[in-house]
Design brief:
elongated; 6-stranded mixed beta sheet; 7-stranded mixed beta sheet; about 625 residues; Nucleotidyltransferase, domain 5; binds adenosine monophosphate; Substrate Binding Domain Of DNAk, Chain A, domain 1; 16 helices
């Protein structure tokens, strides 16, 4: 039975269940909806409070969670029970965060497994998924309170650099909070939607290239989008997952400590003082966006800083973002003059020096007309509206940050979906067996840019079993990759002749840190020359080994048709090839492969012709 809802705040009938857009941020989170009357996206806020819900969870003495502004109050007094920046822990294991321990004032523990880190509060343990779900639950209940209607469906945004594991973790958190997560979308895609480019029919035919510069509290993302015919396409992304306004705050603290002649080590254990300094530094930073200095005292410490000084200490961080901008432009193959609009996202883009540097780099005016804190949530609401069927003309395309492929002979990476492939998308390739009668094939899925799989990241592995007995090379196994709109990968392997097939959904590998994604890209560039040489050698060896196997088989099957001289020459050439393979000499392997081919070709042809002749003589026309 269909039900019709009534929106009690507007009085209008709701034929469709409402879908909210959620920006689950490192520092703050927001919910937005498409307003049913104005048809404009709006962020949800209680009458007098901010639309931003701090992404902070405090656990009281009975372990009851308190989320948002109220929780933030405990950052100073109860730092061990107050969890901030949980988004930084999403999909990570202990090794990933070990080096950043001093950043977190709560306990992060290692449970000796490959699974995600846990946060310990008293004698209870919480995963980042649990913590994010508490934030989402709070957002859901606030939205329900404001809208006076149940909220069960959502679109949630994630940074463009989030890998499959982190996207899946976000999805899990939504589920745990009682939300049906219809789509996970990239934050820059949402931001560009909020600027409405490409949404108007009039502009459809006009292609636009947009740079989305997103500097939040803890992460930096730069993305290049192409928008044409109502289609949003991410051309390239880059960023630094450990760079943001928090670093500005830390730089201010360092400066104050230095000015007061205090070593960091002296007070680092005083967690409550460190938190006070953190909050004061943030306050100073915001003040300096509009004035020339900040001057306060606490506990006989002078907290004075001029805007000029502030700009000089944060310049290195801003320069780092500009380096990322250069890389993203290189990846997209574009020059600054081809960028039509630069969109600013994230609270830290309010810093005047940030605006100045970004504008200078792109040699154009920057676009900051939409509130940088709200822009992502507003875009998520537009996406939610599209999903509810209200805006059928728009399609969204995102991209994969790293190449996806499988392991082939010799431990080589065979890429099925190159990095920066649009998603959703599909790719497939045929493979065959290497050994006669081989009944199984191991499909190992990897992510990364290196030529050898051992240097890449293994995502999943499974065995395609039950391949009917056939000579090597005859079975045709088609491996297909299907990456859905959320970036979740399904790998399917099918033996075409027999139809047997098996598939796997790449389960999240909680463990790859965001910075590893960047590291993997860098390493692939640094090792490109060696990798190419190694790939060439491995390919030559595999081909040589394959030829040795087939020649040996041919000799055994046709021993009566081969002369003693041919046998001797072949045996010598096989030995020479085997030696070249052992010596790992690519050129020699190729030369010896060719020689063996030259020796065996004449008698192989002769024997084949004889066989055909025999077959023909028995055929009556
Ligand atoms: P987001 O992660 O996008 O919510 O961004 C939050 C970051 O923006 C935090 O580091 C804030 O301190 C910073 N921020 C917010 N408002 C301002 C402001 N007026 N000036 C400088 N930084 C700000």
């Amino acid at each position: 039975m269909a039900k019709i809802g009534i929106n009690l705040s507007t009085g209008s009938l709701q034929k469709e269940e409402i879908i909210v857009g959620i920006d689950l941020g490192t520092t703050n989170s927001l919910v937005a909806i498409m307003h049913p009357d104005s048809k404009q996206p709006v962020v949800l806020r209680e009458f007098d409070s901010s639309s931003m819900v701090p992404s902070v969870v405090y656990f009281d003495e009975y372990d009851n969670p308190i989320v948002g502004e109220a929780a933030k109050l405990f950052l100073e007094s109860s730092p061990e029970r107050t969890i901030f920046s949980a988004k930084r822990l999403m999909g990570k294991n202990y090794v990933d965060v070990k080096n950043n321990h001093s950043f977190f004032s709560y306990r992060i523990i290692d449970d000796n497994t490959d699974s995600m880190v846990k946060v310990q509060v008293g004698d209870k343990f919480y995963s980042p998924v649990d913590l994010s779900s508490l934030i989402l639950k709070e957002l859901k209940s606030r939205a329900e309170h404001i809208l006076k209607t149940p909220v069960n469906k959502a679109v949630i945004t994630v940074p463009a650099y989030f890998n499959d594991a982190q996207r899946q973790a976000t999805r899990d958190a939504g589920k745990l909070a009682g939300l049906d997560v219809l789509r996970i979308i990239n934050e820059p895609t949402a931001a560009s939607l909020a600027y409405g480019v490409g949404l108007e029919r009039d502009n459809d035919s006009q292609e636009k290239i947009i740079a989305v510069y997103d500097l939040g509290g803890g992460t930096f993302d730069i993305s290049i989008l192409r928008i044409a015919d109502g289609i949003f396409e991410v051309l390239s992304t880059n960023g630094d997952t450990h760079l943001g306004g928090d670093d500005f705050d830390q730089a201010i603290i360092e400066y104050w400590l230095m000015n007061n002649g205090i070593e960091r080590d002296e007070i680092i254990k005083d967690k409550s003082l460190m938190q006070t300094l953190r909050l004061k530094a943030e306050q100073a930073k915001k003040t300096m966006s509009n004035s020339a200095q900040f001057d306060e005292n606490i506990n006989q410490l002078s907290l004075l800083i001029t805007t000029e000084k502030f700009e000089s200490i944060i310049a290195p961080y801003i320069n780092k973002t500009i380096e990322c901008c250069k890389n993203v432009m290189k990846d997209a193959g574009l020059s600054q003059s081809q960028i039509d609009t630069v969109v600013m996202v994230g609270g830290s883009t309010r810093v005047p020096l940030v605006k100045k540097c970004v504008s200078a780099y792109f040699q154009s005016e920057i676009n900051d007309s939409v509130n940088p804190d709200e822009v992502v949530a507003l875009g998520a609401a537009i996406q939610a509206d599209i999903l509810s069927g209200n805006n059928k003309e728009t399609l969204l395309l995102d991209i994969t940050p790293l190449s996806l492929g499988i392991e082939t002979a010799g431990g080589l990476m065979d890429v099925l979906m190159p990095r920066n492939s649009k998603i959703p998308s599909k790719a497939s390739r045929q493979y065959t067996t290497q050994v006669d009668g081989q009944s199984g094939m191991r499909i190992s899925v990897f992510q990364g840019e290196r030529d050898l799989v051992k240097d890449n990241r293994k995502l999943a592995e499974f065995n395609l079993t039950g391949i009917p007995g056939m000579p090597a090379g005859l079975p045709k196994v088609e491996v297909s990759f299907l990456i859905n709109a959320d970036g979740i990968l399904t790998v399917n392997a099918k033996e075409i002749r027999s139809g047997i097939h098996q598939s796997i959904e790449v389960k999240p590998q909680y463990g790859l840190s965001d910075s590893q994604v960047e590291k993997m890209l860098l390493e692939s560039i640094e090792n490109a020359k060696e990798d190419i040489a190694l790939r060439a050698l491995t390919e030559a060896k595999t081909e040589g080994e394959q030829l040795l196997k087939t020649t040996e088989k041919f000799m055994i099957n046709n021993k009566n048709s081969i002369t003693a001289d041919e046998l001797m020459q072949t045996a010598n050439a096989m030995q020479a090839l085997q030696l070249a393979i052992t010596m790992n000499d690519k050129n020699l392997i190729q030369q010896k492969t060719e020689e063996l081919n030259d020796i065996s070709r004449p008698y192989a042809e002769r024997i084949m012709n004889e066989a055909i002749g025999k077959a023909m003589s028995g055929t009556k026309i």
